[in-house]
Amino acid sequence: MRRAGVVLVAWGAVLGLMTALQAPFGPRTIEFTMLGTASAASLISGAILALIDARRRVDGALALGDESLATATLVMGLALALLGAGFGLWLILIGAGVTALGLGGLVREARARNRAGGRGDTR
Amino acid sequence: MARARTASHVNTVALRPRAAPLRILASTDHKRIALTAGAIAFGFFLAGGVLALIMRSQLAADGGIVSQDAYDQLFTMHGSTMIYLFVVPVALAVGLYLVPLQVGAPEIAGQRAALAGLWLFVCGGLTMWSGFLTTGGAASASWWGFDPLSDSVHSPGSGMELWIFGVMMATAGQLLWAGCVLATALRRRAPGMTLMRMPVFTWTMVATCLLTLFSFPALIVALVLLWAQRHFGGVLVGDLGALDYQQLFWFYGHPVVYVMFFPFVGMVGEILSTFSGRRFFGYSAFVAAVLAFSGLSMTVWAHHMFTIGQVTNKYFSLASTALVVPAGVEYFDFMGTLWRARLRFTVAFMFAVTFVVQFLIGGLTGVIVASPPLDYHLNMSYFIVGHFHYTIFAGSAFALFGGVYYWFPKVTGAMLREGLGRLQLVLMVIGTNLTFFPMFILGAEGMTRRISRYPATAGWQGLNELETAGAFLIAVSVLVFMVNVVISLRQRIPAGSDPWEGHSLEWATTSPPPRHNFAELPPIRSFAPLLDLREERAAEAAPA
Fold first, then answer.
1. C-beta pairs of B17-24 under 8 Å, 24+ apart in sequence
2. Distance, CA of B272 to CA of B199 (rounded, Å)
3. Which residue in B318, B247, B258 sits closest to A33, CA to CA?
4. Could you say which residues from 51 to 90 on chain A have a Cβ atom under 8 Å away from some Cβ of chain B?
5. Which chain B residue is nearest to residue A111, measuring alpha carbons?
6. End-to-end CA distance of chain A, in Å?
7. B362 with B257: CB under 8 angstroms?
8. For residue B64, how many other CB atoms are within 10 A of its CB?
């Protein structure tokens, strides 16, 4: 067992303690909420990781690709689409097109990985 | 040598080979991603440095070089570049490179996410800087972009818009990197590498990633609200609306200071223990201190808002002052490591020691501004500028250069020139203190930050000229570093796999490391497995 969750749970508990320590000082709602949310998020992430680690080993072979142009394309597409929110629908559409290309590339890479895994193709 | 999960156990998928530039930009190798990110971040550092030199020239000449509007753009883009595009990315990039190596992993967790992070960072940086190409110029509402200064009335141009999108993208990229590094440290460790055997640098990266993952989303939320306010209005309305933006921003804005600090503390810890030739002193206390420090640093954000009178000053002052406890533990561990050791005065070691001294000035002045009554006097003055430049430049940049001198042989297989390194160090120390120390005096005398001109009767010209001379000296020192890199790569002195007698696993592999990091791993029995091996061999070789 990796005990990955322990770190997150411990850290979330520290944040929880600091959130509680705010109480006597009469914090504003947003102060209490932000720190409390971070604490809860850390605790929940830690608990989920602990559950995953308890059920599944993470050792063993990893299927890795050395390059992923599709990932770069996908991010470029998303970036263009985001910029389009400020500069117009035309840029959003271009971004959506590039994103679709990137997604297609990711599917292709995943299929190649599955094929290679099936053949035991290693290098 | 015990075999662990190493390259021979890793399947890779062979797609069609690509041209070299595409291989660099589409590689999922964590080392390649980190090096590309580091190189691009260094480019942004140079660009941000040029902006600083223009600002310093303006202040030495008492105005007359650029207009106030242009000066606003300069300090906004200087701060934004250094924080969003240099120190934070470079801190995480060092983690991307080293953490898998230090925990004995053949690869980083979430390779594609790491690559996506690189592209988000590049897109974000270019987007922010493209503001200079717009008719209204780049963003000019400072690196924190406070509302209402950043709203559509006061910052109507598209430069501000590009800044918002650029910062969002760069931050999203950093979130992805932090997730990958944290997952690697926690879930991809080699057999035998328990949590309490992780090297000190890896632990500081764990703290860094926790801070990143749980505070950076607040910045994205703040920027989405700011964007909505600019386009639709009615989002950040009234006094509390603007204050909510500040709360959200500083919930990111203070932890990010520690994201720009912890990795460098870890680097210094590794360097000091290696060149002391002994195990890092007080390892367990250090780990506890780093985790407590990171937790505390999440809870002090509103000390940036003391003068507003709308936050619980007492709590945030107490929490801020409490930071000296874990910081003190870390310093004590550094001193304990050095105490009565046989020190080797390499350039990396001297940069690390300089970090310890220089950062102390930043830390102690932080104690001053953690006190609300003192902060009321010093807020928005050059004292604050001096304080954070001592923590971020005089502190972290020195540790970063120390780290570069230390790990350059591992990354490239070639040694950097020690002579040029010493010259760089001397120039940087003099330049840094000439530039930033007078800021404390000017701030205490009332010189406010972000002014492009000041009254001739104020008597500030002399100190401003001194600061400008110091800034140019820093630029010369960076030039010396670049010359050193070029010479060292062209006329290579081979480094071998472990030129310094390092303690952690990255020194157990070749320099540079192969694609999947290790052919085989040594047994891991502590946080310094290579030192264990050397001690065992020495014990075996010693006469009975």
1. B18/A67, B18/A69, B22/A67, B22/A69, B23/A67
2. 13
3. B247
4. 53, 58-69, 71-72, 74-76, 79, 82-83, 85-87
5. B13
6. 29
7. no
8. 10
Positions in chain B whose pLDDT score sits under 70? 1-19, 63, 239-240, 544
Q: How far is B229 from chain A (nearest CA, A)?
A: 13
Counting Cα atoms < 13 Å in the Cβ hemisphere of B520 gives 5
B13 chain-A contacts, CB cut-off 8 A: 63-66, 109, 112-113, 116-117, 121
What are the pLDDT digits (tens) for B209-246?
999 999 999 999 999 999 999 998 888 877 668 888 99
Residue A119 at interface with chain B, using a CB cutoff of 8 Å: no
The whole-number average pLDDT for the span A30-37 is 92
Determine, for residues A75 and B120 on separate chains, whether the beta-carbon distance falls below 8 Å: yes
Pair of tokens at residue B294: 């990171």
Q: How far apart are CA B46 and CA B40, in angstroms?
A: 10
Dist. CA A31–CA B308, nearest whole Å: 15
Q: What is the CA radius of gyration of chain A?
A: 22
CA B8 to chain centroid: 34
**Looking at CA atoms only, how far is residue B543 from chain A in angstroms?**
41
Closest to B108 (Cα-Cα) out of B212, B10, B192, B210: B10
If you ran DSSP here, which 8-state letter would residue B392 be given? I
CA–CA dist B498, A112 (Å, integer): 38
Cα four-point dihedral sign B173, B174, B175, B181? positive
ipTM score: 0.90
DSSP string, B7-47: GGG-EEE------HHHHHHHB--HHHHHHHHHHHHHHHHHH
From CA B360, how far away is CA B188, in angstroms rounded?
A: 35
- Distance CA(A62)–CA(A116), nearest Å, equals 12
- Answer whether B298 sits within 8 Å of A63, measured CB to CB: no
Q: Which has the closest alpha carbon to B295: B274, B325, B268, B271?
A: B325
- Please report, for residues A98, B338, B347, B417, the alpha-carbon distance to residue B344 in angstroms, rounded to integers and kept in the order given: 54, 11, 9, 16
Asked, as a colleague might, if the bond just before B512 is cis with ω within 30 of 0, I would say: yes
B511 CB burial (10 A radius; 0-12, 13-18, 19+): buried
Pairing of strands A63-65, B11-13: parallel
User: Are the beta carbons of A40 and A18 closer than 8 angstroms?
Assistant: no
| B42 CA: distance to closest CA in chain A (Å) | 21
- Let me know: does B292 contact B328? Beta carbons within 8 Å: no
Calpha distance B491→B344 (Å, rounded): 25
Identify all chain A residues contacting B219, using CB atoms and an 8 Å cutoff.
Answer: none
pTM over 0.90: yes
Q: Which of chain B's residues have a Cβ under 8 Å away from the Cβ of A41? A: 214
Q: Count Cα atoms within 13 angstroms, Cβ side, for A3.
A: 7
**What is the DSSP code (8-state) at residue B144?**
T
Tell me the shortest Cα–Cα distance from A71 to chain B, in angstroms. Answer: 6
Res B34: pLDDT: 97
Which of B488, B493, B435, B443 shows the shortest CA–CA distance to B466? B435
Whether chain B has a CB inside 8 Å of the CB on A105: the answer is no
